[in-house]
Amino acid sequence: MTPQVADLTAIELRVLGSLIEKQATTPDQYPLTLNALLAACNQRTNRDPVVDYVDTEVIDAIGALRDRGLCRLNHAPGQRTVKYTHSLDTALDLDGPELGLLAVLMLRGPQTPGELRARTGRYHRFSGPAAVETSLDELARREPPLAVRLERRPGEKESRWRHLLGGPTDEGPEDDPAHRRVRPLEARVADLEAEVARLRDLIEGRSPAAW
Questions:
Q1: CA distance 69 to 71
Q2: Any idea where the domains of the chain sit in the sequence?
Q3: Model confidence over 73-131: pLDDT tens digits?
């Protein structure tokens, strides 16, 4: 039975993405100890957003993922430290390209096929953006879908894609980090315009004698 993945929390997604990433990028250190997994989740590079989880939060997320069949304990005989592995590929029947794309999307948010090709080299070497699109289309055709193409924003040459492991999105311009940076400026401009209008009304209401 396919595990439920549409309502994974942000920390569960970060744990999964980190396990997949380290399996591909540092195989000699995989499976991961709790400390290594916590460090991977809180990593300052190749992460969006950057987070600061504590070990109890990661442990709770691991427990929730184990209940869904997406994470396993790895406790070999004679090994004192418990280590953790993901099982997303077997649980959802994902091939290498699809797994790599989902990992990068989980760790870095919505991205274009070009960005994804550049960032998935250590998972799988795509021949070009068209090959990335092919794998993304495969994810989108799953039932339930695992990825979705977002509407192209003004000024963009490529559409971005996001994963659906945490459910559908109604992402619009207001959800974009660049837009969030502009909003405070727009609010200040609106305040200034209101002040100018108030002063204009005040001046126009005065009598010539007031001058």
A1: 6
A2: 10-163, 176-210
A3: 987 777 788 999 999 999 999 999 999 999 999 999 999 999 999 999 999 999 998 99
CB neighbour class for 20 (10 Å; exposed up to 12, middle 13-18, buried from 19)? buried
Residue 85 structure tokens: 């592995």
Cα atoms in the Cβ-side hemisphere of radius 13 Å centred on 188: 5
How many CB atoms are closer than 10 A to CB 160?
21
Contact between residue 123 and residue 100 where contact means Cβ atoms under 8 Å apart: yes
Strand boundaries in the chain, DSSP class E: 32-33, 71-74, 83-86, 147-149, 161-163
Which architecture does CATH list for 10-163? Orthogonal Bundle (1.10)
Residues 6+ apart with CB under 8 A from 197: none
Task: Retrieve residue 66's tokens.
Answer: 């184990």
pTM over 0.85: no
For the record, the structure tokens of 40 come out as 């991977």
Judge whether 176 and 125 are in contact, CB under 8 Å.
Answer: no
- Alpha carbons 112 and 14: distance in angstroms, whole number: 20
